[in-house]
UniProtKB/TrEMBL annotation:
Annotated signal sequence range: 1-33
InterPro entries tied to this protein: Glutamyl_endopeptidase, Peptidase_S1_PA, Peptidase_S1_PA_chymotrypsin
Keywords in alphabetical order: Signal
Highest taxon, organism lineage: Bacteria
Keyword Signal: yes
Name of the protein this chain belongs to: Peptidase
Length: 357
């Protein structure tokens, strides 16, 4: 399937000699998708998107039965397929820790979190602690969920993590770029679906199939982990409910300090974590190169795409996404996770995704 290249974006660290028109959105609330920017034609900060692909058997099911595309994706994800899906293997980050870029600070942008439309939807069960956080208690969030997709190359089913994020469309999921695309000129993933608050095989809020996937050219074209960020637009679940109406949405911040106290949530799926419930890590982040942040956390693969949340509220399950679990290095002690540093292009990517069908 051919990607549709959107108006190009520009990351600060690569913007020398390139004129940039930043968004004029306010710092609070939900911004529009109508801003402009300029960059070179093959900038890694260029947004790339596709209508979410499906596998041939799902396409045939739509033709044969007359099911909607969303219903066919939901039917594809049987309990057996979900149970047998595996975490994606990503190379360890090659970032060398160093001082942040000396460029001018990124513009501060913020979207406020929002609770679900129905207050009785809130659930205050505890998330599982990481091995370093045993003894600490943090509530799981109904906005955080497990992502399922089929790899178009090897035909295997995989898992990632993600979180619903507030936007005017009320349909966005925040995740990592490698959870929507293989990176480095490979393929977009197929049969993509988000299951918020997946718990021990149960789907209490339903399954939300993707309609569009969006990431950076820097990820899809060259597999650069500085650009390992993505958003998915999802259709209604099988109960005809919109995502954010049903579970609420996390807030989003860009251009914030690199050193912050964060809560990571997601579905690690390798020993000693089973992948059937949310686990958390908490700690202080640090700058890692000009465009990444890092945190010591022993959560395993499957955590990829899970949100890094600032000001996480244990009562509401809401905070502000400031990063996403991208890649890890288990050779060091403690295990290190990295996230792209969220700055101007990530804000633009969020707004572009918000305008997709």
């Amino acid at each position: 399937m051919r990607a549709v290249r959107l108006r190009p974006l520009t990351r600060r660290s690569l913007a020398a000699g390139i004129g940039v028109i930043l968004m004029s959105a306010t710092l609070t609330g939900v911004a529009s998708a109508g801003s402009t920017a300029t960059s070179s034609a093959n900038s890694p900060s260029e947004a790339v998107t596709v209508p979410a692909p499906v596998s041939s058997d799902v396409a045939q099911e739509v033709t044969r039965t007359g099911k909607s595309r969303s219903a066919a994706i939901q039917a594809y994800w049987t309990e057996k397929r979900m149970r047998e899906a595996i975490p994606v293997s990503a190379a360890p980050s090659t970032v060398t820790p160093q001082s942040p870029s000396a460029d001018a600070p990124a513009t501060l942008h913020k979207v406020e979190p929002v609770a679900p439309s129905s207050p009785q939807s809130l659930d205050h069960r505890k998330a599982g602690p990481s091995t370093k956080d045993i003894g600490v208690q943090v509530n799981a969030s109904i906005t955080v969920g497990k992502i399922f997709y089929r790899n178009a190359v090897d035909g295997l089913n995989y898992v990632c993590s993600g979180a619903s994020v507030n936007s005017s469309s009320r349909r966005l999921v925040s995740t990592a770029g490698h959870c929507v695309h293989g990176g480095g000129g490979r393929n977009w993933h197929q049969n993509w679906a988000f299951v918020p608050y997946f718990n021990f095989g149960n789907r209490p809020y339903g399954t939300f199939p993707a309609t569009s996937l969006a990431t950076f050219n820097g990820w899809s074209g060259s597999g650069n982990f500085d650009y390992d960020v993505a958003f998915a637009v999802v259709a209604n679940n099988e109960f005809n409910q919109r995502l954010v109406d049903t579970v609420g949405g996390q807030g989003l911040q860009t251009g914030q300090p690199r050193a912050r106290f964060m809560t990571m949530l997601g579905y690690p799926s390798e020993n000693p974590y089973p992948g059937d419930w949310q686990y958390f890590c908490q700690g202080n982040t640090a700058a890692a190169g000009a465009n990444q942040i890092t945190m010591g956390c022993p959560l395993t693969r499957g955590q990829s795409g899970g949100p890094w949340l600032w000001a996480y509220n244990d009562s509401t399950g809401l905070g502000y996404i400031n990063g996403t679990s991208s890649t890890l290095n288990r050779i060091v002690n403690p295990t290190q996770w990295w996230s792209p540093y969220f700055d101007n292009p990530d804000w633009d990517l969020f707004n572009y995704a918000n305008g997709l069908p």
